[in-house]
Amino acid sequence: MKKKVAVLGAGSWATALAVLLINKGLQVAMWSRRRELANRINNQRENFRYLPGVTLPENLKVAVDMEEVLSLAEIVVFSVPSHAFRDVLRQALPQMPGQALIVNGAKGLEEDTLLRLSEVFIEEAGAQRAAHYVVLSGPSHAEEVGRGLPTAVVCAGLSLDAGGVAQDLLMTENFRVYTGSDVKGVELGGALKNIIALGTGIAEGLGFGDNTKAALMTRGLAEISRLGRVLGAHPLTFSGLAGVGDLIVTCASMHSRNRRAGIEIGKGKSLKEALAIVDMVVEGVRTTRAAYRLAALHKVEMPITEQIYRVLFEDLSPRIAVVNLMTRDRRSELENLC
Predict the structure, then answer these.
(1) Which contiguous run of DSSP H or E holds residue 123?
(2) Residues of the chain with pLDDT under 70
(3) Does any domain span residue 257?
(4) Contact 242, 179 (CB under 8 A)
(5) pLDDT score recorded for residue 298
(6) What is the pTM of this model?
(7) Catalytic residues
(8) Residue 48: what pLDDT?
(9) 302, 293 in Cβ contact below 8 A?
(10) Domain containing 45: what range?
(11) Which DSSP string do the residues of 40-81 spell out, in sequence order?
(12) Residue 332 domain-assigned (yes or no)
């Protein structure tokens, strides 16, 4: 009997994961909140809006009835924007089996509460279901996973058993899955790297070179690690796939929405204009606001995050932001790093 998997969401990552799981021989149903999108995918066998160029298997069905998608599902994959996670979870919980494994592919923080998404899950589902939650993260652009290009990711579970089940579920010859137990670190790494990608995009839009982008990535990783350590994450997590791995791919690839939005801002576009050009969810914008507040709350120095916040929300000139970073007080490279 094939395992039944429900994929909640119909964006690029949801679609790529659905294709991967069907190709493994699993029974997969995908939920879309928009009937027009669901019909188009079902009829055209391609998600032209979010994952163009990837032909979808005939047995992948997309529905707008969440109960239909969730019925008897043994595994539920959440692939919705982080700001929608709580609402979708609330809709799903009464309709999905209590023992279902939850694999969350969203990368972000809840802006109003500053919670990680596993904390949102526990608030809504209860601590008794925490052992069924796994976060999926790492350098994994949907455009490449959907085409079957070699990719390595990490699944971190609130229980080791859940991480192992998710590993077995997702692992293929082209999709390598490692397990971990540092849910805090994996979630923070996956969320905060989007801020740095906005910054490297801004630098590129300003016409700066590889030196600048390398500096932003390296020092960005330092401040991600600082906040992570204060919040209880394991420092080594940020040296792994969910940390430096995801940071590299998000800052360097044109598949990255955050990088593309940053480039437009660096060229002089407003945040609103940049988001309209990208025309997809840019997680780093909301995450910048949340991380800025978290850093202030916990008294953690995050200068790159602070300057990007001011560029996005206080109309600071990107060039002035660079000057502010370059003229900070002198210090040792490893100060406050570990």
Answers:
(1) helix 117-125
(2) 1, 337-338
(3) yes
(4) no
(5) 98
(6) 0.95
(7) 193
(8) 95
(9) no
(10) 4-181
(11) HHHHHSSBTTTBTT-PPPTT-EEES-HHHHHTT-SEEEE-S-
(12) no
Alpha-carbon distance 5 to 3, whole Å?
6
- Name the token pair of 277: 């050009």
CA distance linking residue 173 with residue 227, whole number of Å:
35
Length of the chain: 338
Same domain assignment for residues 31 and 136: yes
Cα–Cα dist 334/134, whole Å: 33
User: Hey, what are 321's tokens?
Assistant: 């932001």
Amino acid occupying residue 286? R
pLDDT tens-place string over residues 296-336: 999 999 999 999 999 999 999 999 999 999 999 998 888 77
What phi, psi does 250 have (nearest 5°)? Answer: -75, -30
Quickly tell me which residue has 């909140």 as its tokens: 33
Question: pLDDT > 70: what percent of the chain?
Answer: 99
Question: DSSP secondary structure string, 10-34?
Answer: -SHHHHHHHHHHHHTT-EEEEE-S-
Tokens representing residue 265 in the block: 């801002």
pLDDT digits (tens, 9 = 90+) for 210-246: 999 999 999 999 999 999 999 999 999 999 999 999 9
The type of residue at 330 is R
Q: Are residues 62 and 152 in the same domain?
A: yes
DSSP three-state, residue 315: coil
pLDDT of residue 132: 95
